Amino acid sequence: QASLTCKDILLFKNLDQEQLSQVLDTMFERKVTPQEHVIDEGDDGDNFYVIERGSHDIVAAKDDQSRCAVCCDNHGSFGELALMYNTPRAATITATTEGALWGLDRVTFRRIILKNNAKKRKTYESFIESVLLLKSLEASERKKVVDVIGQKVYQDGERILSQGDKILIKHKIVTSTEVNQEVEIGRCQRGQYFGELALTTNKPRAASAYAVREVKCLVMDVQAFERLLGPCMDIMKRNITHCEEQLIAMFGSSMDLTNPGI
Predict the structure, then answer these.
(1) What is the mean pLDDT of residues 178-189?
(2) Which residues are noted in the entry as 3',5'-cyclic AMP 1-binding (predicted)?
């Protein structure tokens, strides 16, 4: 069961089969009940968790006030940050329904996942630095991005874009199409990205994306992005001019990115 639950977890995507088997063999199941605190902000990190089923609120304190940063509903993972960076828990995770988690202990996580991430950093850091959307990030922030991205390979004609993912193009080409008419409106090359506008506006996805021949993408889950670096909107504000140019190209007009409620 753990193998099915964990097959789409990006932190595991770059593990070889032996490493993945070691991780799965070590994982343990934890049942949770409504209002149970799985993790408390400020505690030392002990385990990384993958959600098998159930909903969880991730609440972080800011300016002496608690705010719900993310709601994980029957999928996703959490708890990696404290284990990666040897820091206290940055948020409180509370189960809002009955559910089940798969846990990975700190020692195994650091021995396998962190060792693999060191190799991944060497491969992807320079590429991430070349991506326009992420140029405004500090070097330490880019390292965190590399830690939570995974690589996915898509075959010719396969649909790439799916809600909840932020995708960067590592190699080859994709086709963007208008949702209803399926007319090609552009192609992305190596180093370009898509999927970010739906995170910064209240509008639905403006286009679909399909692979043209084999395509390798670096993919980052939105929840991981926001837990690492804060709300996507705040990151976009650093690169506001480029984002507004894309909004005009997509929707024919810009909008106030400094006030996402408008």
Answers:
(1) 70
(2) 80, 89
Number of Cβ within a 10 Å radius of residue 191: 14
Question: Which pLDDT band, with edges at 50, 70 and 90, does 34 fall under?
Answer: very high
Do the Cβ atoms of 168 and 220 come closer than 8 Å?
yes
Question: Tokens for 47?
Answer: 């385990």
Of 112 and 185, more confident: 112
pTM: 0.63
Q: Which of 131, 172, 124, 130 is nearest to 148 (CA)?
A: 124
Query: In the chain, pLDDT over 70 holds for what percent of residues?
Result: 68
DSSP state, residue 241: H
DSSP state of 52: E
How far apart are alpha carbons 10 and 217 in whole angstroms? 12
Extract the annotated binding site for 3',5'-cyclic AMP.
80, 89, 196, 205
User: Would you say 146 and 132 are in contact if contact means Cβ atoms under 8 Å apart?
Assistant: no
Distance between CA atoms of 10 and 190, rounded to whole angstroms?
21
Binding residue numbers: 80, 89, 196, 205
The one-letter amino acid at 136:
S
- Give the Cα separation of 102 and 258 in Å (integer): 39
Three-state SS across 174-197? Answer: EEEEECCCCCEEEEECCCCEECCH
